[in-house]
Amino acid sequence: MIGAIAGDIIGSVYEHAPVKTKAFELFAPGSRFTDDSVLTVAVAQAILGDGDYRRWVHAIGRRYPDAGYGAAFRDWLHAADPAPYGSWGNGAAMRVSPVGFAFDCVARVLEEAERSAVISHDHPEAVKGAQATALAVFLARTTGDREVIRHEIATRFGYDLQRTVAAIRPGYGFEVSCQHSVPEAIIAFLDADCWEDAVRNAVSLGGDADTQACIAGAIAEAFYGAVPEAIRRQAEQCLPADLLAIVTAFRERFLPPAPGKR
User: Fold this and answer.
1) Which residue in 28, 158, 219, 231 is deepest, having the highest Cβ count within 10 Å?
2) Under a CB-based contact definition with an 8 Å cutoff, are residues 150 and 117 in contact?
3) Mean per-residue pLDDT for 116-125?
């Protein structure tokens, strides 16, 4: 799960200052964790505990009111009894990666991804984006086969994953819909040759950089077995103690020692 968080932190400074190159500073001045990391940790806490995604996303999200939430989700956080609001945004996909690490069959991964999404993002495209992301993480860690991932995600969800980062990049802009950001984040992983390359691909699209790097970073961590040690340490140093404690507990429970890079 630290792969998602590191991707978020790296992408954070490029969300509103997009780049169209892979030659950028990984941890640039101003890099920070955003709502992507906060809510990913909240989903992990729900899995570690009682399975109540709404409870933990609401509770942990409210601890960090300045993490960069969208306006509609901010209203959801402020509500005493929050209800889903029909969003098709990529907020459900950005937080779902712990599901792909924690559950051990496709049916359960898809079920839990939907449960984690519909607490706020109940539009079919948001549910699809969350399920596609979680399944990509699951398949990355269980099959280690890019073409299996490409085929399964494209077949189940209708995403065009035959495109390349190089083809997407020139005309791509800031996009928060699941249908136009999740496939691109998955392609950023599919076109990569290591964890860092996946994140650089995602940021270089020039879109919603922190979220797309969060998604690509999670899939790449699952595929390669780990995040490079220096990057992991720097990402963890950016997290406050309460979030880091959850990340550590989740890793100890669900992520065995890395078997080595595939």
Assistant:
1) 219
2) no
3) 98
Of the chain, the end-to-end C-alpha distance in Å amounts to: 18
Q: Which CATH architecture has domain 2-254?
A: Orthogonal Bundle (1.10)
- H or E stretch covering 178: none
Residue 158 Ramachandran class (φ > 0 left, ψ -120 to 50 alpha, else beta): left
DSSP state of 257: P
- Distance between alpha carbon 236 and the CA centroid of its chain, in Å? 16
DSSP string, 181-209: THHHHHHHHHT-SSHHHHHHHHHHT-SSH
Residue 178's nearest CA partner among 209, 144, 212 is 212
**Token couple for 94:** 């950005």
The C-alpha atoms of residue 149 and residue 28 are separated, in whole angstroms, by 31
Calculated CA dihedral for residues 1, 20, 93, 58, nearest 10 degrees:
80
* Inter-residue contact 121 to 130 (CB < 8 Å): yes
Mean pLDDT estimate for the chain? 96
User: How sure is the predictor about 261, in pLDDT bands with cuts at 50, 70 and 90?
Assistant: very low
pLDDT of residue 255: 81
pLDDT of residue 257: 58
DSSP states along 125-169: HHHHHHHHHHHHHHHHHHH--HHHHHHHHHHHH----S--HHHHG
pTM of the model: 0.96
Phi, psi values for residue 122, rounded to 5°: -100, 5
CA atoms within 13 A on the CB side of 207: 29
